[in-house]
Design brief:
The complex is a heterodimer of chains A (113) and B (114).
Chain A lengths: L3 E2 L4 E5 L4 E7 L6 E7 L6 E7 L4 E4 L2 E6 L4 E6 L8 E9 L2 E7 L3 E6 L1
Parallel strand pairs in A: 2-11
Antiparallel strand pairs in A: 1-3, 3-8, 4-5, 4-9, 6-7, 7-8, 9-10, 9-11
Chain B lengths: L4 E3 L2 E4 L5 E6 L6 E8 L3 E9 L2 E5 L6 E5 L5 E5 L8 E8 L9 E2 L3 E5 L1
Parallel strand pairs in B: 2-11
Antiparallel strand pairs in B: 1-3, 3-8, 4-5, 4-9, 5-6, 7-8, 9-10, 9-11
Classes of the chains: A mainly beta (113), B mainly beta (114).
Chain lengths: 113, 114
C-alpha cells in the first residue's frame, strides 16, 4: 500500500519555464513533508520542506504547496534550469518518527535547454 | 563541513554471507537513519539511532541490524544475505531526532548479492 504516490514517473520542461511536480498521500497522520532531489550515483539532497500548519513555503526558485484537504502537495520550480534535471522525491513523516520518512517513487525531471 | 560519509561505496557479497556498512554523520549530528533503495520498492526506512539507542525501526526482518557509537558513527549489518538484499543503502544524519531538521544523506553503499 503506497502511502505516498508520485504518479508521474517523468516530466520534460523547457528551460526558463515552470516545472510542477506532484505528490499525493493517503495517511492523514502525516504532518511534515519534504522534497529531495537525486542525481545519479549520489544520495538525495534536501530541497525544501513544509509543515502541515502551512500551505506554502518558498525558498528561492522552489515553492512547495500543501493542500491538506486533498492530501496533495506540489513542488514548483521557477524558472527551470538544465541543472535541475534530476529525480525528485517527495517524502512525508509524522510525529511518531521524524526520521522514518515515507518516500514516493520519484519523478524524473528533464529540463531542455 | 564534511557531509555524510559512507563506506564502502561498492560491495559484492555471496548469498548467505553477512555484511557490515559504515556511516559517519555530519559533525554535530546526533541522529543517524538508514534507508534501503531498490528499483521495485523505492526508498524504505530501515532504522534510526539517536544517542546510541535505536529509536525507530522499519518493517525489515531481524537479519537487518544496526548500532551507533558514542561519536555518533553508525554501522548496519545484514546477516545471511539474500539476492533480494541487493540495493543501495543510504545513511542520513540530522541534528536531532525529534525536530524538523531535515535528513542529510550520504552517497550510499551499493551492495550486490550474487
Amino acid at each position: 500500500d503506497q502511502q505516498v504516490k508520485q504518479n508521474s514517473p517523468s516530466l520534460s520542461v523547457q528551460e526558463g519555464r515552470i516545472s510542477i511536480l506532484n505528490c499525493d498521500y493517503t495517511n492523514s497522520m502525516f504532518d511534515y513533508f519534504l522534497w529531495y532531489k537525486k542525481y545519479p550515483a549520489e544520495g538525495p539532497t534536501f530541497l525544501i520542506s513544509i509543515s502541515s500548519i502551512k500551505d506554502k513555503n518558498e525558498d528561492g526558485r522552489f515553492t512547495v504547496f500543501l493542500n491538506k484537504s486533498a492530501k496533495h502537495l506540489s513542488l514548483h520550480i521557477v524558472p527551470s534550469q538544465p541543472g535541475d534535471s534530476a529525480v525528485y522525491f517527495c517524502a512525508a513523516g509524522d510525529d511518531t518518527g521524524r526520521r522514518a520518512l515515507t518516500f514516493g517513487s520519484g519523478t524524473r525531471l528533464q529540463v531542455q535547454p | 563541513k564534511a557531509g555524510v560519509t559512507q563506506t564502502p561505496r561498492y560491495l559484492i557479497k555471496t548469498r548467505g554471507q553477512q555484511v557490515t556498512l559504515s556511516c559517519s554523520p555530519i559533525s554535530g549530528h546526533r541522529s543517524v537513519s538508514w534507508y534501503q533503495q531498490t528499483p521495485g520498492q523505492g526508498l524504505q526506512f530501515l532504522f534510526e539511532y539517536f544517542s546510541e539507542t535505536q529509536r525507530n525501526k522499519g518493517n525489515f526482518p531481524g537479519r537487518f541490524s544496526g548500532r551507533q557509537f558514542s561519536n555518533s558513527r553508525s554501522e548496519m549489518n545484514v546477516s545471511t544475505l539474500e539476492l533480494g538484499d541487493s540495493a543501495l543503502y543510504l545513511c542520513a544524519s540530522s541534528l536531532d531526532g525529534r525536530d524538523n531538521s531535515p535528513l542529510h544523506f550520504g552517497n550510499g553503499t551499493r551492495l550486490t548479492v550474487t
